[in-house]
Design goal:
Elements: E1 2-5, H1 10-19, E2 24-27, H2 51-56
InterPro entries: Ald_DH/histidinol_DH, Ald_DH_C, Ald_DH_N, Aldehyde_DH_dom
Protein name: Acyl-CoA reductase-like NAD-dependent aldehyde dehydrogenase
Domain Aldehyde dehydrogenase: 2-63
Length: 67
């Protein structure tokens, strides 16, 4: 789920956003960005789409040692 906060006081808006139980919180109608991860929260879903968090699901860590 997503949430939206509108406020003239940006510090207060961010404080409210941190307390919301939502996968994405929009503050003051920002433009959408693929650099921001998107996904559910609690029972709404696990995992993320977009940004580095969305890519991590498809990656596997490998150690390479060479001389």
């Amino acid at each position: 789920m997503a949430a939206y906060v509108q406020s003239r006081d940006i510090d207060h808006a961010h404080a409210v956003a941190r307390r919301l139980c939502a996968g994405t919180v929009y503050v003051n109608d920002p433009a959408w960005s693929p650099a921001v991860p998107f996904g559910g929260y609690k029972q709404s879903g696990n995992g993320r789409e977009y940004a580095e968090f969305g890519l991590a699901e498809f990656l596997e860590l490998k150690g390479v040692v060479a001389l």
